[in-house]
Write a structure and sequence with these properties.
The structure holds 2 protein chains of 2 kinds. Chain A is mainly α. Chain A is built from 5 helices and no strands. Chain B is α+β, with helices and mostly antiparallel strands. Chain B has one domain: Alpha-Beta Plaits, CATH 3.30.70.60. In chain B, strands 2-3-1-4 form a 4-stranded antiparallel sheet, with helices on one face. Classes of the chains: A mainly alpha, B alpha+beta. At the A-B interface, helix 5 of A face strand 2, strand 3, strand 4 and helix 3 of B.
Chain lengths: 89, 117
Amino acid sequence: MAENSSEIRYLNPPAIDVKKEKYCRFKKNRIKYIDFKDPDFLLQFVNEQGKLLPRRITGTSLKYQRKVAQAIKRARHLGLMPYVTDLLK
Amino acid sequence: MSNHYETVFILTPVLSADQAKETVALYKKMLQDNGAKVVNEEHWGMKKLAYPIQKKSTGFYQLFQYEAEGDFIAKLELAFKRDERVMRFLTVKLDKHAQAYAKKRIERKKSTAKAEK
């Protein structure tokens, strides 16, 4: 019984560990300024509770992560984005 | 040496429409009197706030984008602080990338306005 379980041949190898290359979307499409006035763009960098997503998840570079963080904090100050919420998306 | 600034402020919803307009006109006049050149002005009207500010859940949003001297900003913000009709304000200095973005935003606004006509 044990042998044939090892002889299971997959037609195509299961793509579990294929690492999708993360890239910084600001560098890629050359966005230079992140506007704090349009919250729906900034919502992509915030999780359900309205907290900022880390760089390892969004893949943005350090320079633009700081700009995103500053824009989000300004949007929160102006009441365009919540400080804390649930089921934001 | 004049810099580019952008100010967004929120008026309390308690005001009637013309009171809100009058406050906005007051600040616009203040900008012009002090030699600030207003480049762009947007009124987003009554918007819902993401969290209650001063126990109110909506507010009139107003945006001014202008070119002014550095020392004028303290005067402007002092006026905002004193005026109890203004719930919240935020002044931001625009660097060259921000100015390019703002210029594009003005053109986009103009083109949509033209499209509606």
